Amino acid sequence: MKLRTSRGLVAIALGTALVLSGCASGNDGGASPSPSDAAATDIPTPSAEDIAALEAVKVTGDAGAEPTVEFTTPFTVSAATARSIDEGDGDPIAKGQQISMQSAAFLGTDGSKAMSTWDSNSPEQLVLDDNLYPQLLDVLVGKKVGTRFLFAAPMNDGSGTLVTVAEVVETKDVPDPADVPTRAEGEAVTPADGLPVVTLDDTGKPSITVPEGYTAPTDLVVQPLIKGTGPEVTADQTIIANYTGWKLDGTQFDSSWDRGTPATFPLTGVIAGWTQGLAGQTVGSQVLLVIPPSLGYGASEGHELQNETLVFVVDILAAY
User: I want to staple 135 with a disulfide (CB 3.0 to 4.6 A). Which of 21, 82, 87, 273 is the partner?
Assistant: First the structure.
């Protein structure tokens, strides 16, 4: 997944994640940092030593505020390990829901804080499905909004262990996949002249032809191609979408169509061109986006899409 999203916890930016697979539902960081591609049955089980180590981590502070986390350094675990801190006192949390949570991550090497959503007041979203480590489902499903938990896992780059504390602040029901279409449905819209030309195959999968001499725009281009009849999408919602992305030279760099399943991500966690371009569109729509670097990945050093103008065709299948 090339879009920067908040599918995993803040920890993913440092090379670990709460999700088993980052492709279908998105992940953070933009450069496709990925947790293990192993199936859930291949995920190592934490040892008794791992469990004891996480039990020794001290978490204090009032609910609703970033807690203080204390542990002896260097802190390490051999496998992903989770621990429930309290039950919470809000609405029940069920498998299949999306949770919003505040979280902070700490380096096991020296205990320093690496990242915190409390600092920016930007809760992250996570869907409680089988893409999650089973250890996390165990400490979340059946608890209530307000519950806190700890999660520790070795970072993918081998630089140590990351310890994350999180507090669930909201839940949302996720649409039943059986009720979500696979392609945009609505009234065709005639696009403006001179834009990249979109062609659909029999399944609805798009391809593009960039006109010769097409000049990269300096402003975001938003061109509906199909007008859906569903409700308007708001910038704080999560969407389910099929999409493909290309560089301006026509080189494809990502496609949910090729993975065979729609992607799910909050519009609060994707590149600005997506947030601005899709908010206000209706569910069921297909939208062509031409995104200048300033609303994409800008001058992100070393990023494969650094300074690139990006072209996306997005089918908005659901929003919640």
Answer: 82
pLDDT digits (tens, 9 = 90+) for 269-319: 889 999 999 999 999 999 999 999 999 999 777 788 999 999 999 999 999
**Omega into 74 within 30° of 0, i.e. cis?**
yes
Contact 151, 63 (CB under 8 A): no
Measured CA to CA, the distance from residue 280 to residue 289 in angstroms comes to: 14
Instruction: Please provide the DSSP assignment of 211-264 as one string.
Output: PTTPPPPSS-EEEEEEEESSPBP-TTSEEEEEEEEEETTS-EEEEHHHHTS-EE
Q: How confident is the model at residue 42 (pLDDT cuts 50, 70, 90)?
A: low
In this structure, what token pair is assigned to residue 216? Answer: 């990269």
**Residue 61 near residue 67, CB atoms below 8 Å:** yes
State the Cα–Cα distance between residues 245 and 206, nearest whole angstrom. Answer: 10
Structure tokens at 255: 């496609």
Whether 199 shows a pLDDT value over 50: the answer reads: yes
Q: What is the pLDDT of residues 15-34, one digit of tens each?
A: 455 655 333 333 333 322 22
pTM of the model: 0.72
Radius of gyration of the chain (CA): 20
Chain centroid, CA 194 distance in Å = 33
